[in-house]
Amino acid sequence: MIGIFDSGVGGMTVARAIEKICPGFPLVYFGDIAHTPYGSKSPDTIIRYSKNNTDFLLEQGASLIVIACNSASSTASDELRSHYSVPILDVITPATIKAAVLTQSRRIGVIGTRATVQSDIYRKRIQEIIPDSMIFSQACPLLVSLVEEGWLSRRESKMIIRRYLHPLRLKQIDTLVLGCTHYPLLKHLIGPRIGHRVKLIDSSVEMAMAVSDFMEQNADIKHRLEQSRSQQSRFYVSDSTEAVENMASKIFGRPIHLEKVRV
Ligand code: DGL
Predict the structure, then answer these.
(1) 3-state class (DSSP) for residue 256
(2) Which has the closest alpha carbon to 11: 71, 76, 56?
(3) What's residue 11's pLDDT?
(4) Ligand 1 centroid vs 219 CA: distance in angstroms?
(5) Are 189 and 123 within one domain?
(6) Last residue of a domain, which of 168, 187, 203?
(7) 226-256: b (≥16 Cβ within 10 Å) or e
(8) CATH classification of the domain holding 138
């Protein structure tokens, strides 16, 4: 199975994209809702949670791990790769490649959680590809809570987004990376606010395409994943509320049963 984890429901945007781009490969998802948000935690804590999540997904039969969380990818992916022998894919690499391909002005904005922005990983990775690019980052810590609460079109959400995007609007960027897997759910508010001229990079779609490419290039893993084809996708959470259940079903466009587990 393809194992996917996030701090909450945001990673379901990645899971849904993988389901569409890699149909027939069952998923096992874990949303660590009891500990969300990761983006305001220290690196040590994010690494500890990420290891627990990975252990759980491996116990459930995952043979590939997708870190569908930018905060965990930026902080814990090196540690996870050195600790586990299964392939670990992080959500940041595909988005940085796409940003480098799409930008023409070489002025790129990145929005994310505090942990992701403080790690400076998008700037480092994009500048490895385009050394003279200018990266402007903005932490948007409140957006994760808005999504987890289901406040996707509220006036208050629009006001908060306007406030966060204001500094980036002054930087004349031509590309904006949605550097948090919760943010695709707010794309309809972010796009008009940053301006239609700015291309938005939805890391969930880029991640799903990277999973598909990975399977094509790694026949042994693809073969192992194919052996799980008869299984149903499963969705686990460490805590659940009605808002979370509703959001999960909204993301997938069908009722999603979330099983609560202690990890
Ligand atoms: N969806 C997560 C991310 O991509 C994060 C949120 C959080 O828990 O802070 O960073």
Answers:
(1) coil
(2) 71
(3) 96
(4) 31
(5) yes
(6) 203
(7) eebeeeebbbbbbbbeeebbebbeebbeeeb
(8) 3.40.50.1860
Q: What percent of the chain has pLDDT over 70?
A: 100
**Structural domain count of the chain:** 2
> pLDDT digits over 58-84, tens only?
999 999 999 999 999 999 999 999 999
Show the tokens assigned to 205: 């779609």
What range does the domain containing 127 cover? 93-203
Active-site hit among 95, 146, 180, 190? 180
Asked whether residue 121 falls in the same domain as residue 196, the answer is: yes
pLDDT at 148: 86
How far is the C-alpha of 162 from the C-alpha of 155, rounded, in Å?
Answer: 11
Residues 139 and 189 in one domain: yes
Instruction: Mark whether 22 is an active-site residue.
Output: no
The Cα–Cα gap between 39 and 117 comes to 9
Determine the atom of ligand 1 nearest the C-alpha atom of 182. 1
215 and 185 housed in the same domain: no
Shared-domain flag, residues 126 and 141: yes
pLDDT band, residue 173 (cuts 50/70/90):
very high
Select which of 69, 173, 176, 177 is catalytic. Answer: 69
140 has catalytic annotation: no
Residue 50 has pLDDT above 90, yes or no: yes
pLDDT digits (tens, 9 = 90+) for 143-158: 999 998 899 999 999 9
Query: Which of residues 159, 182, 203 is at a domain's end?
Result: 203
What pLDDT was estimated at residue 235? 97
Cα-to-centroid distance, 39 and ligand 1 (Å): 6
Percentage of the chain beyond pLDDT 90 is 94
Instruction: Find the 204 Cα to ligand 1 centroid distance in Å.
Output: 12
Pairing of strands 234-237, 64-67: unpaired
